[in-house]
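Sat 14:20. Reprocessing the chain from the morning session after the first attempt stalled halfway. Input below, unchanged.
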Amino acid sequence: MEQKPQLPLSRLAIMSLILLVLIGVAQLLPGAVASVDYNQFISQVNEGKLSSVRAFPNGSYMTLTGLSAQDNKETKTVMLTETYRTLVESNKELAAKVTLSEPAGSQSIVSQLAPFLSMLLTLGLLVFFVGFLMRNNNQGPKSAANFGKSKARLVNPEQNDVTFAQVAGAEEEKFELMEVVDFLKNPAKYQKLGAKIPKGLLMVGYPGTGKTLLARAVAGEAGVPFYIISGSDFVEMFVGVGASRVRDLFDQAKRNAPCIVFLDEIDAVGRQRGTGFGGGHDEREQTLNQLLVEMDGFEENQGIVVMAATNRADVLDPALLRPGRFDRQIHIDLPDSKGREEILKIHTRNKPLGDDVNLKIIAKTTTGFSGAELQNLANEAALLAAREAKPYISMAHFEEARTKVQLGPEKKSRVQTDESKHLTAYHEAGHAIVARSLPTIDPVTEISIIPRGRAGGYTMHIPLEDTSYTSRTSLLDDLATLFGGRCAEKLILNDISTGAKSDIDRASKIARAMVKEYGMSDVIGNLSFGDAEEVFLGRDMGRQQPYSEAMGDLIDQEVKKLVDSAYHKAEEILKREGEKLHLVAQSLLAKETLQAYEFEALFTTGKLPEPLTEVEARKANEKVLEDYSRRKRQALGNLRQAAGTA
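Finished this time. Tokens:
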């Protein structure tokens, strides 16, 4: 690579070095002689030690050299200020004893040129410094010349090895995107029918569901260039820079068409305009305006497919979502059980797994996990196996990794008093007893009083099936289960603690959603007062509540009624099952952790089973989950039958 800009700087450096050497020589001339004060010099002259002196002016200094007449010593060099020299010349006595001479020579010339050399050196260093700054500013993405250039990263087809084979758990989404791949490969097939491929595809979904991965897979399948840029890369503190980068991005894409332009986190630049923040000259709004024009303006972008990803489509500007810009929205949901199993196969194919690892069971017990969370789960299991110096990853490692991902690592070193353990044991036992007594609650798979994360203990429930909705009965049972810990504290200890804070927060949120969003209040009826979406400050800051104060009071009353009813239900269950509550709590104090089969044995037979091996315990837990699933289906069927009979 040529380095022409560095050539002049090298010459400047050489010139500066030469000047530095010259000024150093000039400065060293007076510094090489010994300094004597005036009294010492007078004494030496009077004693006859200096019979001849030659003076070389050098600024305010004069160099005197003399030869002693008595001992014939070598020439001695001394320094006097210009003032001393004047005194010597004015003293006739001294002047008669010492001969002063000022021979012309190169040293005097150099000494006289020293100020000029110093000035030239300063100028040379200044030029060198300015040139160095200019060179740095002219290199890299932050240069003045490239400030308005796009920061998009181009991924060529040969660099992109991601295909749909690396994407699992999103079969419907891949089917939608295959149309784009087919169009990029064979556009004539669509053009002869007058069909046009969507100009923009907006992928909406939870974080970690694979939006960016899908976009790369589309480019990899089609074998076309792939431009990737984040929405935040457009916005700068200077107005107009973002719009310039948008223009440059599409100019590059037109030169490489057909291609894909992927805008990650587009909500950073595509939020709704006119929200009252920043005014009309806001840099973000200018950038959005230019993006709208480039996607569907006076000129068509043939062969350019714009793909974007966001977690919040509700805050995007309506002009960005209209047909002709983002024609199609692809909602990427969390994977179901089958999808999670396929994702786990991808993330464990390069990991040594033990014979006891069953990915199907792991997939069933990780309901609600996204693709990124499943990847993290597999990695955590591998780390746990490596920590124990195991040659393979066992099922126990996956189970511990799942609990660690959901709740945090164990904190066995945390100091707990006997009173704290006693309270935690009854609190968690209360949750478990209430959950086991209600037919719609997911099975209890583990109870522990060992602190994890910020929790002092936990009762873990694992959904056995993927559902897209939740019934009113299930939500009411969830509320009762959440209050099981607080009720147990009140009944057994005749006191309450702050440990129920998270339970109360979750219960309040569920009850308020039931009344305001789901229409599950008999008094208010099928009305929605819309807090389902997250608040967007620019749009919602000045919005009034969509109901009157009287309706607000009624909503509060209904929420409190649901919460109180759930608390009383939990209280009735614990009073009825008081013996089991004590049994589970005492077992927790003795063992600290109870697995599913141990809790089921305590609840049904009243005693702990014999200790089992790891493999036997896993099989016993699986049998408990199967039996619970059968009982749950039967209980729900009885509820539906009773409702139909009524």
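The radius of gyration is 42 Å.
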